[in-house]
Amino acid sequence: MAELSRGRRMLVLAICCMSLFIVGLDNTIVNLALPAIQRELHASVSSLQWTIDAYTLVVASLLMVSGATADRVGRRRIFQIGLGLFTLGSLLCSLAPNIGLLIVFRMVQAVGGSMLNPVAMSIIVNTFTEPKERARAIGIWGGVVGLSMALGPVVGGTLVDAIGWRSIFWINVPIGVAAAALTAAFVPESRAARARRMDPVGQVLVMVLLAGVTYGIIEGPKLGWGSAPILGCFALAVLALAGIVRQGRRHPEPMLDLRFFGSVPFSGATLLAICGFAALAGFLFLNTLYLQNVRDLSALEAGLFTLPMAAMTAVFAPLSGRIVGARGPRLPLLIAGTGIAVSGALLATTGPDTPTALLLTAYLVFGIGFGMLNAPITNAAVSGMPRSQAGVAAGLASTSRQVGTGLGVAVVGLVVATSEVGWLIVTGCGVAVLGLGLLTTGRWAKGTAERAARHFVCEPPKVTVGAA
């Protein structure tokens, strides 16, 4: 197996980050276009809700299946299919003549999106095999995650005001086409050294679990947490979880190997992703309503107010990767938890006449905290796991982010009339990150990761340099 040069490795990272950028941007950019979509397509409020929720539901349900499939049949191949579907779905969304078809096309987008983030991370893990270099690469990756999500309101507001809502989908097309062409030319193919047995029952159970949890979280505030459909969703999710545990014990090579969770850092990464992205989703949701409804700013002006957060995320995420590579994940996680908690506490005091300086300070602090968060999460999710299952591990981390995003909006949405409580929830997420950072980075936690790693036989991936 020929070793890729440093320049080639960085090019692979850049290509993977292109896909991540358009997916992350899409996660936040669509929200600002909803009023324009409603006016043009005469859509109901519930239909608008589903333009967001349909995407989230499909992505969350398919992330782990996509990661496992990539490990089996080829990461570059699945990555290219994902880019093609996401680009096609974006083009169809821009042409949608009614709200029903827009929702359907968003689901096409989501199928492609589920093949991008976990598979790209798996490609990165198998390209950057040296731990310190990999941590730096993950830091850059984390910077793109935060930057794309934070820039969504700015880009969305600009495009909707200047061109119209359809333009928010147009921008994905040239980036997607370019990323697909560059992938074919420069990204080496890789897959698990030995093809794992298929586990269709496990795949279906994981999809049912995630679909049930995600649908319940999204629809709970609207239908009522005690309503029959929501209770039924959560009951189905519990049954699916029980089935996954049983399948994991019976199947020789289950899709979701429960031995992963014997590693405290890995389990902690899942909880950290949920808490951190719940904080981000709650922040974006509450801040957008505050700036537009309380301070009477336009969509574009509200988006521009978030630029300090985006700038700090872009600066501190790569720095976090370097710190993780040199000193481990503890310091970045402690800074992340502190930044998110302090920002939430500051914003809990805001009102119509809050000084701009205080707002910008809170946004800067949140950006620093969130920027520090992604690298240790992703590094913990894939470190110590067999590279043959990197797609599954990365898929679980990405799934946790989606669940956290849905949970953040759902929980904060319940108390949106009392914004102070919403900001205190964001603060609580920061405190949880701080506590998990302490718990998952100590000597005991590292010992559990070492014991879990000994259960796996790590095999190098098959890599063919150049286009196949």
Secondary structure blueprint with pairings:
Blueprint: H1 6-41, H2 45-73, H3 75-95, H4 99-114, H5 117-127, H6 131-162, H7 167-170, H8 172-186, E1 189-191, H9 200-223, H10 228-250, H11 264-294, H12 299-305, H13 307-327, H14 330-347, H15 356-382, H16 390-414, H17 419-439, H18 443-453, E2 462-464
Antiparallel strand pairs: 1-2
Helix pairs in contact: 1-2, 1-5, 1-6, 1-8, 2-3, 2-4, 2-5, 2-9, 2-16, 3-4, 3-5, 3-8, 5-6, 5-16, 6-12, 6-13, 6-15, 9-10, 9-16, 11-15, 11-16, 11-17, 13-15, 14-15, 14-17, 15-16, 16-17
SSE pattern: HHHHHHHHEHHHHHHHHHHE
> Helices and strands: which structural class?
mainly alpha
Number of strands: 2
Strand proportion? under 5%
Could you explain how this protein is built, in words?
The protein is mainly α and 468 residues long. Helix content is 79%, strand content 1%. The chain contains 18 helices and two strands. Strands 1-2 form a two-stranded antiparallel ribbon. Helix 9 runs antiparallel to helix 10 and helix 14 packs antiparallel against helix 15. The longest helix is centred in the first third of the chain and has 36 residues. The radius of gyration is 21 Å and the shape is globular. The C terminus is likely disordered.
